[in-house]
């Protein structure tokens, strides 16, 4: 029973309570049959051996009939419960099999007999499941917020880089014009001065700022990739959160629909 989920554990407890109540009904019916036989047949102070044997046979037959009817009813109800489980499993694409050897395991039968049938434990597990689900949602929201933050920084840096590249291209074109003029002046100066060299420096193009921005974009891209890589576990977390949410919903539904006859915490 340890590997059974909380939702299925609640269903098992409900199943046990229901059929234990049927067991009590069967015992009450047998007791009523004995009382009827005692009141109807035992009226004299002395009986012969034949009369005693006849009364015992009559009581035995009554008990057999009652037991046969009640046990047969329990068997039929168990079959209907199994049919529901198999039908739902087939709808989910699962194939179930029964191991009848386990239902005769004395140790397992004793464990079932000792099971406590109160709902307090189930409610506690439901609350813990809810807390885990809420924490998972918070972690997921924080991860998505961090991802959006880094994505925004990345997009902003890309826009800055594009703008700076456009400015750099414009400055480069102007620099080429100036450089052409200076080359003409340099050529004229060389002719005038007999080939004397002149050191001419072009205008600043902003390459240093562009390089720094490219480095920043590369760094942000690396961080963004790291964040996206971290988001892969959160895809699994989303699936787990969906499964936990379904379990929590099922638990709530079972608790809301719990039958009043089975609310008592004491073992039947």
Which percent band covers the strand fraction?
A: under 5%
The Rg value, from CA coordinates, equals 43 Å
| N-to-C SSE string, H for helix and E for strand | HHHHH
How many helical stretches?
A: 5
Helix content: over 70%
Average pLDDT number? 72
Uncertain residue segments? 191-206, 259-268
CA(first)-CA(last) distance: 19 Å
Shape from CA axes? rod-shaped
Class based on secondary structure composition and strand pairing: mainly alpha
Largest sheet entry:
none
What is the count of distinct domains?
2
**What's the β-strand tally?**
0
What does this structure look like?
The protein has 268 residues and is mostly helical. It has 2 domains: 6-115, no CATH class; 134-244. It is built from 5 helices and no strands. The protein has helices at residues 6-41, 49-91, 106-113, 120-193, 207-256.
